[in-house]
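Appendix C: a fully annotated inverse folding record. The material below is reproduced so that readers can follow the format used throughout the book. The structure is listed first as tokens, followed by the designed sequence.
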């Protein structure tokens, strides 16, 4: 199993100390992970200690430890994003949309504002940004692809129609989609993306990876076995990891 979406710092809940890194890696090992990828939020750039992750990883020869970043995609900020990405030899970069304009829509108290939108318009505005994130050429993975459903507000139009262009961009630009299990612990109580979008991705031959989006060590690897079962049910036999921003393809049965 792989877990390529782990937040060592959480929301600045702890430091990137060797002890804290070891706690995440111990849990990764206990969960039987083959590869674990740290992907803290880019806004905590000054608090990262990426070399320390590589150093502590030497004590875990049976666990492939990868250093990534979860970048908040903002329209028009591509140049600044590129500067950050180019300043360290990352293994992978997740591009995630958490904002529409200056509205951070995934904060817990934003539900009322979600309900002010016509749901289809909200989904269109969100997936337009995901499409831009996919085509900007900066990312390897698109994070929590349908997080706009976080408050369980569903569009009237089939989500597969609303997401179609964003999915095509993921496919055309060679990006990987994660199955992010953290959505189950949000009001929507469902993985990101939902099953029928994973199914559509499979039909389009999009590659998948896995992420718990753990913001604390105890959550590393959570529900990923179930995510693997989704892939199995859909006949998906490969799963994608990364090293040095190159894809590493694993047979699902081997991880
Ligand atoms: Zn995120
Ligand atoms: Zn995250």
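Designed amino acids, in order:
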């Amino acid at each position: 199993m792989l877990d390529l979406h782990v937040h060592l710092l959480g929301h600045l809940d702890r430091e990137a100390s060797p002890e804290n890194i070891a706690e995440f890696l111990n849990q990764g090992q206990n969960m039987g992970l083959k590869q674990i990828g740290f992907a803290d939020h880019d806004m905590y750039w000054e608090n990262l200690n990426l070399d320390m992750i590589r150093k502590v990883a030497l004590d875990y020869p049976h666990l492939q430890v990868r250093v990534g970043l979860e970048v908040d995609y903002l329209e028009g900020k591509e140049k600044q994003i590129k500067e950050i990405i180019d300043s360290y030899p990352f293994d992978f970069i997740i591009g995630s949309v958490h904002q529409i304009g200056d509205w951070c829509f995934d904060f817990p108290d934003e539900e009322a504002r979600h309900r002010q939108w016509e749901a289809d318009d909200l989904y269109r505005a969100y997936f337009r940004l995901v499409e831009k994130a996919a085509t900007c050429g900066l990312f390897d993975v698109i994070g929590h692809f349908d997080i706009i459903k976080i408050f369980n507000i569903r569009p009237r139009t089939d989500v597969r129609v609303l997401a179609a262009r964003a999915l095509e961009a993921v496919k055309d630009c060679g990006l990987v989609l994660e199955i992010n299990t953290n959505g189950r612990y949000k009001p929507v109580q469902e993985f990101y993306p939902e099953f029928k979008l994973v199914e559509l991705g499979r039909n389009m031959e999009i590659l998948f990876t896995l992420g718990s989006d753990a913001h604390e060590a105890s959550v590393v690897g959570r529900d990923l076995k179930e995510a693997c079962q989704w892939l199995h049910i859909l006949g998906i036999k490969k799963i994608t990891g990364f090293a040095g921003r190159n894809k590493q393809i694993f047979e699902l049965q081997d991880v």
